[in-house]
Design a protein that fits this description.
Blueprint lengths: L8 H5 L3 H14 L6 H14 L3 E5 L2 H14 L8 E5 L4 H9 L3 E5 L21 E4 L12 H9 L3 E5 L25 E5 L13 E5 L2 H10 L4 E3 L2 E2 L10 H11 L2 H18 L5 E2 L14 E5 L2 H10 L27 H9 E4 L7 H12 L2
Parallel strand pairs: 2-3, 2-4, 4-5, 5-6
Antiparallel strand pairs: 1-7, 6-7, 8-9, 10-11, 11-12
The protein binds pyridoxal-5'-phosphate.
């Protein structure tokens, strides 16, 4: 029986092995392991991709989000106890970045079609302490619309994108600076290049993207001990730097991002056309916006039976995510809240294989298996 693993990173990176090895050897032999040419070039390339003025390479996606919030505090835009509106339906890291900075996360239910934060609900969550909104482009579907921008404008709120799952995606509505690419839609964005993300390093890397000069300077200093120039520390900073080797790995992978995103989109279309089991609800493909399909997530009542059936037929699957942030033990202070849509999603979502080297033929075969469930 043919096996369809959910994700095999060694197989996913296999096509680039020669280039990755050469790039790693060049760094090893070059003798510059941090703050070198590879990081600088990566930052230029990420800034270009996200159509922003600045990109600062950092240690990982969570640190990228944390650094943005901390930098806004240093710049006087945020204060301890300020409220930040975040989606209830997200990976916990989004919320952790807010809590870590002494800010208060205010959770917002998703829409049933995009599974992203419902911008029409934001107005009702605003208090005199609300200072920012943090939309997450979950699974690679842009979370951006005119309503989001309007409420931000009306209440003078910062918009900080969590672009960890959507590098290369594009919205159908222009962002604050007239561009459409995620990571450049709002005031600033945190990006992740964790190995399983669409643009994945061979370890941890992240990036902050922004067109705000002051924010970029503050983030860059904070990520390097709070130092604006050598042995001169203006902030109580951190060490959140990027390894040159990982920057080099990413620059290899970046050359193939567009192609890989196209391949994922082709697989999503096959699933969409071929899965016809009424028990399996497929995600919406939005014409006009560019979804990059970090995950292809179906909804199934009786998920455990479905996953056991898939497994018995050689099809790997995963769950993103089984427990929403407000149900995590670390968020006991949010446990009394109720988010029915988020909670139902957590019970029903199943991620199907979509990452390379999966082919459209594989997707057709998987759809056939699903239709016999
Ligand atoms: C992966 C992810 C993060 C964190 O990125 P890391 O690089 O793993 O720290 C943050 N938010 C979302 C939505 C993510 O998927």
């Amino acid at each position: 029986m043919k096996q369809y693993p959910f994700l095999d990173l060694a197989l996913a990176n296999a096509p680039y092995m020669d280039e990755l090895k050469t790039a790693a050897c060049d760094v090893i032999e070059g003798g510059r392991y941090l703050r070198g040419e590879q990081t600088q070039l990566l930052e230029q390339e990420i800034a270009e991709l996200c159509q922003v003025k600045h990109s600062i390479g950092v240690s990982n996606g969570l640190d990228a989000l944390k650094l943005i919030l901390r930098a806004y505090k240093e710049l006087g835009r945020l204060r301890d106890g300020d409220e930040v509106i975040v989606p209830a339906n997200t990976y916990v890291a989004t919320v952790l970045a807010v809590s870590d900075n002494g800010l208060v996360p205010v959770l917002c239910e998703p829409r049933e079609d995009t599974l992203n934060m419902d911008s029409s609900l934001i107005e009702g969550l605003i208090t005199d302490r609300t200072r920012a909104i943090m939309p997450v482009h979950l699974y690679g579907t842009p979370c951006w619309d005119a309503g989001l921008m309007q409420v931000a404008r009306d209440h003078d709120l910062l918009i900080i994108e969590d672009n960890a799952q959507a590098i290369g995606a594009a919205s159908d509505v222009a962002g604050l600076h007239g561009t459409f690419v995620t990571g450049g839609l709002g005031d600033a964005a945190g990006n992740s290049f964790y190995p399983t993300k669409n643009l994945g390093a061979l370890g941890d890397v992240g990036a902050v993207t922004t067109s705000d000069d002051a924010l970029a300077d503050a983030v860059r200093a904070l990520a390097n001990y709070g130092s604006d120039r050598r042995y001169h520390n203006i902030y109580l900073g951190y060490n959140c730097r990027v390894d040159e080797i990982q920057a080099a790995m990413l620059r290899v992978k970046l050359r193939y991002l567009e192609r890989e995103n196209d391949e994922r989109a082709a697989i999503a279309r096959v699933y969409d056309e071929c899965i016809s089991n009424p028990r399996v609800k497929t995600p919406v493909i939005f014409e006009g916006m560019r979804q990059i399909w970090h995950q292809y997530v179906v909804r199934v009542e009786g998920r455990d039976d479905f996953r056991a059936y898939l497994n018995a037929n050689g099809v790997g699957s995963d769950i993103h995510y089984a427990t929403p942030p407000h149900r995590q033990p670390c968020y006991k202070d949010l446990a009394h809240l109720s988010f029915p849509i988020t909670e139902r999603l957590a019970d029903e979502v199943v991620s199907l294989p979509i990452a390379p080297p999966l082919t459209t033929d594989d997707a057709r075969a998987i759809a056939d298996i699903i239709n016999r469930f």
